[in-house]
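anyone seen this seq b4? input:
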Amino acid sequence: MSRRAATVGGTDNPVRRHRRAQRLTQAELATAVGVSRQTVIAVEQGDYAPSVYLALRIARALSATVEELFGEDENTTPGEARR
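predicted toks r here
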């Protein structure tokens, strides 16, 4: 498994890490930001890139910055799309 796959799909996802640190369930975070639980799952798995507005709501709900949760990592090349 590549480092990127482990980071995005595994437990190292920043949204998942922050959510768990605050002891929130996926359903609780979804309710707090106004989306479905399935949307939170997709964001955590890296299958869905949230809109700027949703990213801001998630960051506020998790007391984090958008950059902390969705910023590019050092292993991503400038032209590579985030999934």
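The radius of gyration is 12 Å. The CA atoms of residues 46 and 83 lie 5 Å apart. kinda curious what u guys think
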